[in-house]
Design goal:
The protein has two domains: about 50 residues, no CATH class; about 90 residues, no CATH class. α2 packs parallel to α5. The radius of gyration is 20 Å and the shape is elongated. It is mainly alpha-helical. The longest helix is centred in the middle third of the chain and has 23 residues.
């Protein structure tokens, strides 16, 4: 409870308030060292969670972003389906490319510099499969920039 009081004091000093109904605790664990170090006991007033969503990026207590990647892929796949439906109803390719670039590329690259290094090889393969599907569908002209970004470990070289 001392930690909570310290946070409340800091928040008050910085003209902020702490909403205890929205406050959760996450303990980041290194799975290799889990046997050696016991996590602290949970606080009575705050619930402990295994994953946390911050600025629309989900990260788990094992420092994994697989859940975030799954969410992004699902959202983008649904949007690609909608774009294919629009294409079948006669929307021009230029408009589809513009929508793809505006929405899907933005979803794929949002905060990628923060979460990319926590992806697994499987996560990266799933993301690349989605992009290749977009290329086969004709929705995407050039994804060289995205592949360059991802293969450069989060840096455009």
């Amino acid at each position: 409870m001392v930690e909570i009081n310290n946070i409340k004091t800091w928040a008050c000093a910085n003209n902020l308030t702490l909403n205890l109904t929205k406050t959760v605790e996450i303990v980041f664990v290194d799975s290799k060292r889990m046997r050696q170090v016991q996590p602290p006991s949970p606080l009575a007033t705050i619930s402990r969670v295994s994953s946390l969503k911050v600025l629309d990026v989900t990260i788990s207590s094992q420092m994994s972003v697989s859940e975030h990647v799954s969410t992004v892929i699902s959202s983008c796949a649904n949007f690609i389906y909608a774009l294919r439906t629009l294409w079948s109803h006669g929307i021009h390719n230029e408009a589809l490319h513009l929508i793809y670039t505006s929405v899907i590329r933005a979803k794929l690259l949002y905060a990628a510099s923060a979460w990319w290094r926590f992806t697994t090889a499987t996560d990266r393969q799933r993301l690349e499969a989605l992009i290749k599907q977009s290329i086969r569908s004709g929705l995407c002209h050039s994804v060289a920039l995205m592949f360059q970004y991802w293969r450069g470990n989060g840096r455009i070289s």
